[in-house]
Amino acid sequence: LTLSVCVCLSSVQPLIVSVENFVQTIRFNRPEKKNALTWEMYQGVIDALKSGAEDDNVRVTVLTGTGNYYCSGNDLNNFSEIPADGGVEAMAERAQDILLRFVAAFIDYPKPLLAAVNGPAVGIAVTTLGLCDMVMAEERATFHTPFVSLGQSPEGCSSYIFPRLMGPAQANDMLLMGFKMDARQAAQSKLVTRVYSTMLFQRDYMRTCHWMAQLPPEALRSSHGLIRQYDRNMLHQVNKAECQLLRSRWTSAECHQAVAKFIKRKSRESRPSLPPG
Asked: Do the beta carbons of residue 195 and residue 165 sit within 8 Å?
């Protein structure tokens, strides 16, 4: 039995969630902002994963993006909205809470969770790939975690998962030095499962999703649960520790200065050049 009609659960931008043929798709849909995540999008993903976990018509969930980017990580405007009551501390507390719940939703998701990385991925969009069961990347995709240069620290359980996936040296190059991997390097480092061509990317990743969704559902779900159960408690501990450290980083002068410097540089780069003469 398959669902032949796409059932749209949420068509409101900037997140589109749909179900078709037992595959739930969660699509980041802010192409004009390189699919940067707002706090509302964080909550939208949490809600979509909860819905997918409870829906018998969902056997597999896949995350992807609209346009040329998978996701450019946090929208830095998230950190410019300082509450009048509580100031920076209140902002950091709110950010810690939603990040903790966002990553926990990945850890606890009871069904196969796949990522179809259709372009560059940055920050939280990279670290949470380690919590996915399969990662399919378009050949032009890149993977960048510039945490330290922004005065911040790793999240998404990457401080635990990345060294175990790719070895401590490569993990440190990514998480400390901000080394940007291409798709082939990410596959060699075991962060990416399969690399598909640009021309056939959507066809190939959806074939993989639909093939997985046609497997015996109880065997699929129970086997998935068996694989994840041994690490689940540890991952929650890591998530909590990472979020606590990030909260302290977000309130530090060093972080504020680094982010302000980054925003100033980006603003300068986006200005049109004056014509000669």
From this structure: no
